[in-house]
Description:
The complex is a heterodimer. Chain A has helices spanning 31-56, 60-84, 103-127, 131-157, 162-165, 171-190, 197-220, 234-253, 258-288, 291-300. By secondary structure, chain A is mostly helical. Chain A has one domain (31-293): Formate dehydrogenase/DMSO reductase domain (Formate dehydrogenase/DMSO reductase fold, Up-down Bundle), CATH 1.20.1630. Chain A is globular. In chain B, 28% of the residues lie in helices and 18% in strands. Chain B has 2 domains: 8-235, Alpha-Beta Plaits (2-Layer Sandwich), CATH 3.30.70.20; 237-267. Chain B has helices spanning 22-31, 73-77, 98-102, 129-132, 154-158, 164-168, 179-195, 241-264, and strands at 8-13, 57-65, 82-90, 108-110, 116-118, 139-140, 147-148, 174-178, 202-204, 217-221. Chains A and B meet through α1, α3, α4, α6 and α7 of A and β2, α3, α4, β6 and α8 of B.
Amino acid sequence: MSRRGERPMVPEAEFTSYYGQPIINPPVWEPLDIAGYLFLGGLAGMSSLVAVGSDATGRLALARVAKTGAVAAAGLSLVALVHDLGRPARFLNMLRVFKVTSPMSVGSWLLAAYVPAAGVSALSAWSGRLPRIGGLATAAAALLGSGVATYTAALITDTSVPAWHEGHREMPFVFVGSAATAAGGLGLLAAPVAETVPARNLAVGGVAVELLAFERMRKRMGMVAESFDTPKAKPFIRAAQGLALAGAVGALVGRRSRLVSALSGAALLAASAATRWGIFHAGMASAEDPKYTVVPQRQRTVTPTA
Amino acid sequence: MDMDTPRMGFFTDTSVCIGCKACEVACKEWNLVPEDGLNLTGMSYDNTVGLSADTWRHVAFIEQRKPVENPDALAMAAGGDLQWLMASDVCKHCTHAGCLDVCPTGSLFRTEFGTVVVQEDICNGCGYCVPACPYGVIDRREEDGRAWKCTLCYDRISGGQEPACAKACPTDSIQFGPLDELRERAALRVSELQGAGVTEARLYGEDPTDGVGGDGAFFLLLAEPEVYGLPPDPVVPTRDLGTMWRQVGLAALTAVAGVALAFGVGR
């Protein structure tokens, strides 16, 4: 619903608006569903890549953690996505067409193939049955998972929401870093220390990619980057950075301790989620304030007419 | 697409809008659009605020204080410097429509008239079209869960009638017709106004080379677009989709390489 109430005609000197009303309609998505899905999709997709690596290097406990994490996160993702629909009973209409112009359509088809693959992979790992089919499913889930973990960047940047769209070059790398942080964190949290070396490497690399890509994105956004400092977004962004650094340091320092590794893993998972929530809320803030739409558009119009 | 049917659209000439809101009412009546709040906003005579799922025509009222040549009675009463802008906003039926591009169900489609319409029996309320629109037109109806917007009266124009808002407009501020014809008429009108000294007169959304490929519903405005709550340089978000998919592909490769590295390093 649009905000109503008396507002000044010109809220700030440098730009004009219609009674301070937003130009674009802000997304109707719920943070728990959609920021939650961005996190879970990253965790699931990247965990499937961890699973294939673990199988290949004979780390059976890490493989089992990754496969279980992948199918659980993917299952919860489906619940969140269906719950966020205005007409949940019509969720199957998502598979009515395939459109490359709609990242949501591409994502629906990706998930439709990915979730069964991740499910078979996990079932086979737990039951010990059908190892060949399980291996194929694990490979398929890893391949599709690399898409599941990254396409969500196109999902949110293919909108007119300034803080999302203006980041369309860097967002996939922020998301892939955040996904690696989460999947590495899950491995550290749940796998025995003897098998967590790759999880630790992945998490540390993920933190580095996420933080660097985020800074680059923020720098290239110009004034729109202010939306990351708005009251709802800022605490999540700060928490994400703090938790990511703490988790990475903990993972490196406490490599021999089960407890420190697990705590680091939990911090890394929380960091990944906080990144998604921060980006979600920055987008909402940038949609609700007309200045983030008007000022950049004004700046790029060559000669404003009188 | 039927090649015999020309692309149809609206030309909304705000210089003759009198703010009667007949368009808002006619639209609601014809399309059975629900009530959208009975609030007094204090925003001049505007109590519908903006386009939404339940407001498909929206009349904006802007009170400007600036010296007026030949003030009328109203301007005189306000001290001779009140200029009142009124404009009826509507879905732009873009050439490159963001809502249509991102709709994952195929509910939004392009009609034989070149307009963009939601099929309400297919929409599952995913809400993707809402932030895709660079103009803030389409929205999800809370109590119903589906996306709604102007259809350019698809039912009426299919039967050879003009849309309800255009039919009801008493000053022909809202003109309906083949887009080519409307563009010619608008060009004449804007040069006529410029010639008469109305230097603020400009067309908005008529240019097929703009960020949305031109609007099927375009406007003659008497101030900067943002004064009316319109974006000054709208661009369809899918214009950058090639870059987005490329970056996603690179990020996916980074994921695969990163995991391989993570398993290769340190034992």
